[in-house]
Amino acid sequence: MFRNICTKFASNQKQITMKKVNFLILLFSLFITSAFSQEKVTLSGIVKDQKSNETLIGVTISFENSTTTRTSLTNEYGFYSISLPKGEYTVQINSLSYAGFSETITLDSNTKKDFILTEKNNEIEQVVVTGNSKKLQIDKPEMSVNKLTIAQIKAMPAILGEVDVIKSILTLPGVTNAGEGQSGFNVRGGAADQNLILLDEATIYNSSHLFGFFSVFNADAIKDLKLYKGGIPARFGGRVASVLDIYQKEGNSKKFGMTGGIGLISSRLLAEGPIVKDKGSFLVAGRSSYAHLFLKLADNNNSAYFYDLNTKINYKLNENNNLFVSGYFGRDVFSLNKQFVNTYGNSVLNLRWNHLFNDKLFSNASFIYSDYYYGLTLDFIGFNWESGIKNYNFKYDFKHYISDNFKLFYGANAIYYDFNPGRIEPIDSDSGINEKQLAKKHAFEPAFYIDAEQKLTDKLSVNYGLRYSMFYRLGEETVNIYANNQPVTYDADLGIYEKATPIDTRHYGKNETIANFDNWEPRVAVAYTIDENQSVKASYNRMSQYLHLISNTQSPTPLDVWTPSDNFLKPQILDQFAVGYFKNIKNGDYTLEVESFYKTVKNRLDYIDGADLIANEAIEQVLLSGKTRAYGLEVMVKKNVGKLSGWISYTLSRSEQKTEGRTPIETGINNGDWYKTGWDKTHNIYITGSYKLNKKWSFGSIFTYQTGQPVTFPTAQYQYQGINVPVYGNRNEDNLPAYHRIDVSATLNPTKNKGRKWQGEWVFSVYNLYGRKNAASINFRQNQDTGLNEAVKLSIFGIVPSVTYNFKF
Fold this sequence. Notes:
Elements: H1 2-11, H2 18-36, E1 40-49, E2 60-64, E3 69-73, E4 79-85, E5 87-95, E6 98-107, E7 111-112, E8 115-117, E9 145-149, H3 150-154, H4 165-169, E10 175-176, E11 186-187, E12 195-199, E13 202-203, E14 208-209, E15 214-215, E16 222-228, E17 242-248, E18 257-263, E19 266-276, E20 280-289, H5 291-297, E21 303-318, E22 321-336, E23 340-356, E24 361-378, E25 383-403, E26 406-426, E27 436-437, E28 441-455, E29 460-474, E30 477-481, E31 488-491, E32 496-499, E33 504-508, E34 513-531, E35 534-545, E36 547-550, E37 561-564, E38 572-585, E39 590-607, E40 623-639, E41 644-658, E42 675-676, E43 683-692, E44 697-706, E45 710-711, E46 714-720, E47 723-728, E48 734-735, E49 739-748, E50 759-767, E51 777-782, E52 789-794, E53 800-808
Parallel strand pairs: 1-7, 1-8, 12-17
Antiparallel strand pairs: 1-4, 2-3, 2-5, 5-6, 9-16, 10-11, 12-13, 14-15, 16-17, 18-19, 18-53, 19-20, 20-21, 21-22, 22-23, 23-24, 24-25, 25-26, 26-27, 26-28, 28-29, 29-34, 30-33, 31-32, 34-35, 35-38, 36-37, 38-39, 39-40, 40-41, 41-42, 41-43, 43-44, 44-49, 45-48, 46-47, 49-50, 50-53, 51-52
Membrane topology: Multi-pass membrane protein
Domain TonB-dependent receptor plug: 162-239
Organism: Flavobacterium terrigena
């Protein structure tokens, strides 16, 4: 099917073949190479972990002699390349969890050299930040980007005995969640569905287990993550809020080992080892919760649990070629007495080929499959419901290290989507439910990009790029036709929006184009170095999102349905501007980051009052299109060295939507005025600290404060047949009470670990130490005794203590 679509795409003269694009860009690159590389030699190679042979991402390598200092950064596969004048250099490498490295080398010709780094200590899960490994890269044209190594994440408090990737990024400025017990996260006033979440380049559509209490990412299997809030490189597309780029470990190619943990609620186990020593390795990690088993002991038939599996295989064919196969499978099951059973989860698979054309040109080709399934069984009604989204993605990326001052990145990708809006089938023949499949939807999204990073002067660096994205909404499907092409009508007498009645239908054949869009997406970021310790930066992003999440909640739920852009649902278009000031204090012992941003998004959907979203075959009949804006100030102060380390992040922001009437007589939503989105948080404060008392004990703590979630409260009431009926005010004009809590953890690492193959530790933690009853929601009901309306606060979690035993051998 994918091949047929691509063939049709070419026959309509709307495709530029990847071969032609690569050929033209390579010619340009070779020209640039000849212009920039005279009288220089190239040093390239891989940076690896000494014990496992794992490649290391984002390691800064400095080259210094009497006349110059240059730096290079390893890419997602540990590869670096730098062009330098001939001569003798001192090479220095500083990394968070690795011992400092220094070596003198002489360069008189192109050279390949791998660097092997040694961990600072062998004690499980103990991380001490030393040296200047966390200095800000003042001169790099990269802003609105936060990087966290797994070592940093594991140094944070372990909640329920397990560190969590998603909870770690919530401590960063500009990042919030919708509320306690809700999944997903929000970035700079964007919705959760506007985040692109990648695990080894494969799309993850729901990042949470147990409705947000755990993330789908097993920290034992994760190597590195990077969150782009702005200044997003042109290689990324398809979302308009952020990109969370996560890479799994590759596995130990030197020796077999296991890592795991046993806790009160969940346990996990990871095994890794060589396939062929120093050439290939495997990694398998499993995790499961089992708290529901204790309910069964008490004759309670309710349950809520999850399980997941991470896998990865890599093999080095030769010096220039590597193959990787990685996968993830996860499921959540929530059951109420087996009458209500909810099952959902992600499945992804990625086959990758790394190829090194020469010491300056690195490429990566990926074939990716992603599947998100969500199902529901309602036994008391007698039907099963299932829906989901699948995508098949091919991407080919090139990184061209043309010179010390000029790097070029370019590539293409093509995604084919299968959408299942919903299928209903009866549990048995007596249920009275008829089997029904909502019309499946299909789409094709190709894109090309080119991105350049250039150092113009000693003080001025720039990153600029362009992405060209296209989107084709494809048949087979029968589409409604409406009068004036308006699927929603407005009743001026009642002042309400209603579903329009179709006047006709049109059938589109298989792979026939129903609607198509294309967008140019420019990106630029500039860094100006004031001195060696401080700089100012600015960036601009335009991005397009062709998928929409149909949901009536503030965070993703299993019943949400993804749908593609079409004749009625237009793509979301983002424009974001950001400026920032960055400073290293005391040679990087402390760092300061201050950023301000402003962004707008066109064609953001909202819903008419009383919208029915589940199993709706004509979803366009309950949707209105508006626009959003978000702006704010972010401040982050970090202490990077010493026994006590951590950071304080503060965000002051506003996120608003405006959905105006389509004609002068229409009111729109909230009379066409700006109103708060469901994820607006005026104030957001995180204080994160880690303290290493001695070799045995270390402690961690996180304090959280957020403005309460926007909600709609009643403003009046009237009586109808003896019943008090509330009258609600404008949408999202109220807020829940402020949210705050403290989480703490203590880690005991026995001294007998030293020198032993088996190493263990105990992690004690308390979630919500002072038992704050934070409001997840406030509902209004009529008191059965008094007959009066009353507000009832729902709080999900109080104090939650836990203990976990972690081990490694």
